[in-house]
Amino acid sequence: MPRPEEIIAEARTWLEVPWVHQGRSRHGVDCLGLPVNVAHHFRLTDRDYVTYGYTPNWRLLYKMLDEACIRVKSKDDLRLADVPVFWMDTGLVEEQMHLGIVADGGNPLSIIHCYRRVGKVCENVFDQYWIDRIDRIYRFKGVW
Fold first, then answer.
1. Which of 117, 79, 125 has its CA nearest to residue 98?
2. How distant, in Å, are the alpha carbons of 50, 55, 117, 144 from that of 98?
3. According to the model, what pLDDT value does residue 3 have?
4. DSSP helix/strand/coil, 52
5. Mean pLDDT of 3-24
6. More confident residue, 96 or 113
7. pLDDT at 92
8. What percent of the chain shows pLDDT beyond 70?
9. pLDDT value, residue 57
10. Which of 39, 52, 71, 122 is most buried as measured by Cβ atoms within 10 A of its Cβ?
11. DSSP string covering the chain, please?
């Protein structure tokens, strides 16, 4: 099973890949596609959720994540390589939820995510802005 550092290293190989709605390849990926592709790379799960529109059914997303991952109960237990799901109050329905992968960006941590507003996979400081928006946190099964 991969270590968190290996998950993060794989996620970083996706940096600069363009944002594409429902994308699942190096030609384009979205915020869910990034952790899905990382999980598939390590054969942690074969699950995916691709039948969403620009206004996704988050009950189905959470159902998939609950089946494929371990749900972390507290922000205090946040670890490297965890997958936080954020509530984004952007005023745009299609951007209300967002996912990323927690990385070791030094002090503070960073978040690797495919951010539609930037148009690609990027790495940003995981600061209070992001922490305040966490709705749920998931951990890949088998990652320690």
1. 117
2. 15, 12, 11, 24
3. 95
4. coil
5. 96
6. 113
7. 56
8. 92
9. 72
10. 39
11. ---HHHHHHHHHTTTTPBB-TT-EETTEE-TTHHHHHHHHHTTS---------SS--HHHHHHHHHHHEEEE--GGG--TT-EEEEE--SS-GGGSEEE-EEE--SSS-EEEEEETTTTEEEEEE--HHHHTTEEEEEEETT--
For residues 108 and 126, give the distance between their C-alpha atoms in angstroms, rounded to a whole number. 7
Tokens 């059914």 correspond to 57
- Which DSSP letter does residue 113 get? E
With helix as H, strand as E and coil as C, how does 10-21 read?
HHHCCCCCEECC
Mean pLDDT of the chain: 90
Q: What is the Cα–Cα distance from 103 to 116, expressed in whole angstroms?
A: 19
Q: Cα separation of 53 and 125, whole Å? A: 29
